[in-house]
Amino acid sequence: MSKSTSAATHGVNTRLAHTGHDPKSFHGFVNPPVVHASTVLFPDAATMVSRDQKYTYGTHGTPTTDALNAAFNELEGSAGSVAVPSGLAAVTLPFLAVLNAGDHLLVVDSVYSPTRNFCAGMLARFGVETTYYDPLIGADIESLMRPNTKLVHTEAPGSNTFEMQDIPAIAEVAHAHGALVSIDNTWATPLFFRPLEHGVDISIHAATKYPAGHSDILIGTVSANKQAWPAVHKAFGMLGICAAPDDSYMTLRGLRTMGVRLARHQESALAIARALEDMPGVARVLHPALESFPGHDIWKRDFCGSSGIFSIVLDVADPARHQAKAHAFLNALEIFGLGYSWGGYESLAVHANLSDRTIALPPKEGPVIRLQIGLEDVADLMADIDRALAAAKAA
């Protein structure tokens, strides 16, 4: 909660230290309490019927989840936010909130692959048709809009290959057709991109990543503007997918240091990405903050920073050797862990699976290795990558 009307003018780290923070409400204690709740008692039968009190049941909110939601409202500039049990739950909640049987959904082809699975495996069963579009489409998304298109789902940058989208142009077209726009903003966080200021209606985060920040929490957040919030809030209540109190508390705790952690992630990732641009064995570096990246101009226009995850394309001419070379690279790593997710303190690497793409096709030069740059020393990480590149060359 803002302590004064001037809080919006404070620096990022000041805001992160104090948002979702009201010690006067909790006897002066700095952090909000962790409230484990299912049943909430009412003072009398009339109040039980009217529900005219702040808290009514654990799934509808507690002081712990309210503190986290308040923090995201301030960071996003949103009308309302909810915390849910995972990043995927954060993606699916707006879809279920907005879409009805017979509706049409537009999804960027470089989307987080579990989102695609949900569209094909769940929404299709309910009579929602999904069309995938080129992440570079911009205002030309006009050609894909239909009378029954109700939602355009974006992701900038795209998963694994980091294509940038012209979000304001897409939002303008979508709104002209009466559709809402959602975005998976996990890569940038609200510190580096504030989607609702660029025409987006619903901002989604796998808060598992940078907000929680320590590879030990599964949690997601959904923040919406005034137009979209009523539907999101209603669906949240009906689905009962509330985040656990301990996870909410730990995510709020992680937010306090997210600014300084992101600064380190950004600095290290950019240093490594720039070094890899000229490295033998690397065909391309896929990082929006690099001047060589095709979407750099959009990133520079709309974003104010970059996080710690990007990809490299190994230089492997023979497609039959892509997997063997990728595995040789990964198996030679000693500091980078082999694991999914990202945003934690440790560096990770994975061979990106792009086989589900239909429009934003995989790079032809070789396999894509996604690198999460953690908080380790850059020199040590570069030595690890050098060792991996040598192993890939020898394989």
Automatic annotation (TrEMBL):
Region (Disordered) location: 1-23
Cofactor: pyridoxal 5'-phosphate
NCBIfam families (alphabetical): cysta_beta_ly_B, PRK05967.1
The keyword Transcription belongs to this UniProt entry's keyword annotation: no
Positions carrying N6-(pyridoxal phosphate)lysine: K209
Name this polypeptide is given: Cystathionine beta-lyase
Ranges annotated as biased composition (Polar residues): 1-12
Keyword annotations from UniProtKB, A to Z: Lyase, Pyridoxal phosphate
Keyword Lyase: yes
InterPro entries noted in UniProt: Cys/Met-Metab_PyrdxlP-dep_enz (IPR000277), Cys_b_lyase_bac (IPR006233), PyrdxlP-dep_Trfase (IPR015424), PyrdxlP-dep_Trfase_major (IPR015421), PyrdxlP-dep_Trfase_small (IPR015422)
Family membership noted in the UniProt record: Belongs to the trans-sulfuration enzymes family.
Highest rank taxon of the organism: Bacteria
GO terms classed as biological process: L-cysteine catabolic process to pyruvate; transsulfuration
Pfam families named in the record: Cys_Met_Meta_PP (PF01053)
MF GO annotations: cysteine-S-conjugate beta-lyase activity; pyridoxal phosphate binding
Reactions performed catalytically: L,L-cystathionine + H2O = L-homocysteine + pyruvate + NH4(+)
